[in-house]
# Entry
Amino acid sequence: MSVNYAKFNEIDIESFDAVVVGSGFAGSVVARQLADMADMRVLIIEKRPHIAGNMYDEYDDAGILVHRYGPHIFHANSQRVFNYLRQFSGWLGYQHHVLADWYGTYMPVPFNKNSMEIAFGPEKAARLIQKLVDTYGDERKVTINELREGDDEELAEVADFVYKNVFLYYTQKQWGQTPEEVDPSVTARVPVFVSRDDRYFQDTYQGMPIYGYTRLFEEMLGHDSITVCLNTDATGVFDLEFLDGSEDSKLKSISILGKAFEGPIVYTGPLDELFIGRFGRLPYRSLDFVYETYDEEYRLPCGTVNYTVTEDYTRITEFKHLTGQKGPNTTIMKEYSRPYEDPDRQIPYYAILNDENVAHYERYRALTESLPNFHLIGRLAEYKYYNMDKIVENALDLSRELVAAAKEHQAR
Ligand code: FAD
Ligand code: UDP
# Structure
């Protein structure tokens, strides 16, 4: 069935058992699970004019399926997660390949044995590869930080090369910080791989929804018991009541349309926005996307090219490689990373992880601890660098808890 859309000013809040803010994977999976497993009537509040969060895709003017909020490639090791999503879409077995543009020469990323031959020539590369295998083991992933800590002189040359030619400039563009300054988990996402495997991910399940993500979300949210209000910002329709008047006073209740809502409220947006930034805004990086369409079948040799030593954009993605779409023309997208300064105009894409920012987030989170029916989940609401698979997994876990609680309540 199709999605039930409603205008917020026309809904009767009393006819809902649960409210979900945001229709990305975090919110949509929870909404569908509550509807399916506990017969709950769920209201989704979404501030954008469409569902699917950052996974949203659509056909552009040239008829090419493009991702509007950054290239999204599904990859997971969890069978539970993949089986769950398989209910809502067939999948194309796409495997993502990324090349670094190294002064006009393409080199696989993650940096691997094949990249090594391009960088050092076959003879020297053979020796270095042997050393890497002896030191770390074959088919091993080694983070750039781990590689730079080694004490072998020749491997130090490899580490230095990878640091300077793969990580330094890209990381500076993406984060406005050097690789030393970003949280180690960030660069660890793309380790050096002592392998001939040129794929960006090695997960068991990888691919793209056959008709795109938006269609998958339409399928997931197309349920009698789910209603979606688009163009509705939770911060504008939630009335927050606090235990007292102090700055760190915790939440007592959330009223919607004049009445304290007692069912589960699942919030997947940025937490600082909910509290009108009372402790200052949480730091994020944002992105600008620039699309270009060409009358050529393909523009790039693979899904994404990373510009690790030149250009002011970080990467270019060519969607046809990802989606398998065929045709005579193509659309590519350049990503420009920016500081997140204006919530009215920009989207917070990446939490900037460090101790200070996490403590800042925790101060906001503490305000919600007192409200047992309020649940935070998702990349924004948890201030984490999560991929889609982890979001789906967490949403399934939270749903399980909420369904159990609802059933216990219904039994009473
Ligand atoms: P979102 O998808 O951001 O959804 C949150 C929703 O809440 C949005 O629709 C938003 O409009 C809504 N919202 C926020 N505040 C409010 C409010 N106050 N009121 C109403 N609605 C609100 N992951 C992968 O696994 N593979 C990839 O290839 C990949 N590529 C990525 C590329 C980029 C550029 C980025 C930024 C992320 C990428 N990710 C990728 C991560 C992926 O986007 C996230 O894991 C996923 O979007 C998280 O889902 P979510 O539901 O938590 O958040
Ligand atoms: N990175 C890099 N060069 C690359 C690829 C990644 O320096 O060619 C670093 C950079 O800091 C980036 C991080 O590794 O932000 C994580 O990369 P990933 O591709 O996972 O980023 P995402 O797709 O989440 O933007």
The CA atoms of residues 148 and 159 lie 5 Å apart. The chain has a mean pLDDT of 97.
